[in-house]
Amino acid sequence: MQPVELARKLAKEMDAHKTASVQRVYVPNEYTVFLSKQDRTKLEGYERSLEQELSGYLLEHARRRGYDLLTRPAVEFNTDERLRLGEFGIQARLVKPPAHEGEAPKQGEEGHTMVYSAVRERDRGRPKRPEQAVGALVSTRAVVSLDDRRYVLDGPRATIGRSKSVECVLADPNVSRRHAELRRSESGDWQIVDLGSTNGIKVNGRRVASTRLSPGDQVTVGTTTFLFDIEQ
């Protein structure tokens, strides 16, 4: 996990959560960055200065894009025990300053937490070998949306399960350790395949062994249901 990767993803979340009024485009001014316990430990001694540096980066990004901010962007680090080394989540929200002195600020609804893998982001930026480039016609990412978070999965394969070693971890005792796998085709489409799980897979309420997924499909593994989407 590198600060430059955090800065790029914070700017991406700012772009993704802009709100247009009649003459202005407002963007979130509070950002919570969730790190694994190991990554958070590495920031000891300069966490506060990094928060200020990222705040300044977001302020300059907003100025370049012509966005309006209610207050200077605030960045705060937090720990999420569910994240693995190299993974980080970002939650952005728009917070209105208090109208009167002593009044608490009004906070907007908390959006989904976007979960990124810093390791996979670095790998994706490396030049592909010739044999990797052949057939890679369309590059898409699978998005798994749960109640409190979203997993962005680069592929071409991503495993879903209870094990902490898989790409999409579900804390559900009814989910097998390696329950299912998301697979991307050369055309950019995705399918889900049951990996011999105990409780199987349902897509939009129908039991399947494998099937092509479309944006908006509801997928149930164990007793957990998530919304599937595709990001270009």
Can you put this structure into words, describing what you see?
The longest helix has 19 residues, at 47-65. The protein is built from five helices and 19 strands. The model is unreliable at 101-111 and 119-136 (pLDDT under 50). The protein is globular and about 50 Å long. It has helices at 3-16, 37-42, 47-65, 118-125, 130-133; strands at 19-20, 25-26, 30-35, 74-79, 87-93, 95-96, 106-107, 113-117, 141-145, 149-153, 157-161, 168-169, 180-184, 190-194, 201-203, 206-208, 210-213, 218-221, 224-231. The strands form four sheets. A ten-stranded mixed sheet has the order 4-3-5-8-10-9-19-18-15-16. A five-stranded mixed sheet has the order 12-11-13-14-17, with no helix packed on it. It is of the alpha+beta class and 232 residues long.
